[in-house]
């Protein structure tokens, strides 16, 4: 069985352990602080076992949005990948093609009915830089991940050219992908699904 097994291990998010003043990952409307997009919440493992792949480590960053098409590709179901999917298969990257995906990895969440208001929180990350824009309080954060991997020194007011470039990438990402601001909770009619999402802090 193991010889033919395709196995993918990952996670939907990390957990905060007071790196930036918070614990856990879920921040509801009554939380004392806004949801955050630091790497302790975004950086998750990705381990793939496939009969045709030898053991190796891929250093490139990749977004979880690429996982669904990657899995279909691993199962030789490339023709089943919906055209509406934003992600690209990571299989060529695993095989050594470093130009297969964008150097930018985006993460976004819509903050709704918090004590600070509602709006989008979005980050744009490369292997060198990390930019975070908070629409709720109109704040900007910029970190050099080479010299500041724990995201402690905000360079937003110093590296203005870099910040401007990343902000343009964020705006382009939102507009080009026609991202909706939030999930319509009324469309989740299944009571069991609603209960599980609520337990996880998503509703």
Explain what this protein looks like in three dimensions.
With 203 residues, the chain is an alpha+beta fold. The protein contains five helices and eight strands; from the N terminus they run βββαβααββββαα. It is globular, with a radius of gyration of 18 Å. Mean pLDDT is 78; it is low at 180-188.
Order of helices and strands: EEEHEHHEEEEHH
Total helical elements: 5
Average pLDDT level: 78
Uncertain parts: 180-188
Structural class: alpha+beta
Find the count of extended strands (DSSP E, 2+ residues): 8
Instruction: Give the neighbour order of strands across the main sheet.
Output: 5-6-7-8
Q: Over all CA atoms, what is the radius of gyration?
A: 18 Å
Question: What is the overall shape?
Answer: globular
Cα(first) to Cα(last) distance is 39 Å
Beta strand %: 15-25%
Helix-residue proportion: 10-25%
Largest sheet: 4 strands, antiparallel
Element layout with pairings:
Elements: E1 7-9, E2 16-17, E3 23-24, H1 39-42, E4 47-49, H2 67-74, H3 91-94, E5 105-114, E6 117-125, E7 129-134, E8 139-144, H4 160-177, H5 191-200
Antiparallel strand pairs: 1-4, 2-3, 5-6, 6-7, 7-8
Name the features:
4-stranded antiparallel sheet; 8 strands; 203 residues; alpha+beta; two-stranded antiparallel sheet
Short description:
By secondary structure, this protein is α+β, with helices and mostly antiparallel strands.
């Amino acid at each position: 069985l193991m010889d033919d097994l395709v196995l993918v291990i990952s996670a939907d998010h990390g957990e905060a352990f007071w790196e930036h003043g918070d614990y856990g990952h879920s921040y509801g409307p009554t939380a004392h602080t806004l949801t955050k997009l630091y790497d302790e919440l975004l950086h998750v493992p990705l381990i793939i076992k496939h009969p045709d792949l030898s053991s190796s480590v891929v250093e490139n960053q990749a977004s979880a949005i690429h996982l669904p098409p990657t899995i279909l590709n691993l199962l030789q179901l490339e023709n089943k990948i919906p055209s509406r999917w934003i992600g690209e298969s990571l299989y060529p990257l695993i095989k050594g093609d470093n130009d297969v995906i964008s150097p930018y990895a985006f993460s976004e969440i819509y903050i709704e009915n918090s004590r600070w208001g509602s709006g989008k929180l979005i980050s744009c990350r490369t292997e060198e830089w990390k930019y975070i824009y908070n629409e709720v309080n109109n704040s900007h954060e910029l970190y050099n991940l080479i010299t500041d991997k724990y995201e402690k020194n905000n360079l937003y007011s110093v590296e203005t050219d870099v910040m401007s470039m990343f902000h343009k990438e964020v705006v382009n990402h939102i507009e080009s992908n026609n991202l909706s601001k939030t999930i319509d909770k009324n469309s989740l009619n299944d009571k069991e699904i609603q209960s599980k999402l609520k337990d996880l802090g998503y509703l």
